Amino acid sequence: MSEAKVENWFWANGIRxxxxxxIVIGDEVFLPDWVLLPQHGIDKPVxxxxxxxxxxxxxxxxxxxxxxxxxxxxKDFKESIYNGSNNYYYIGVYPQELNQLEVILFQKLQNxxxxxxESES
Length: 121
Fold this sequence. Notes:
By secondary structure, this protein is α+β, with helices and mostly antiparallel strands. It has helices spanning about 1-10, 60-85, 100-110; strands at about 15-20, 25, 30, 35, 45-50, 90-95. The protein has 3 helices and 6 strands. The model has no long low-confidence stretch (mean pLDDT about 90).
């Protein structure tokens, strides 16, 4: 449901994206949640990851609590690679941001140069 909320926001705002594409950075293969194509003033693709298990432990199921330490380790690794890439921008989205998704994603995308009124070339 949470990923659907993010996906719906992209579509409602006319943002072209690819869901779970395979990308290669260095010698690593990744399947990020989304890659936004260059558009509206953003000059390179944007990797978007939704970090669903990064929430308060008391809201997680037992299976998720067991999985969370390895999940956080993988998250940290992926973020270090994403942030070090010259070919992509990176935005992480967290469960606590879903209630303010529009404001937070607008702000994060604008920080990368996004302008919703800029025409496509």
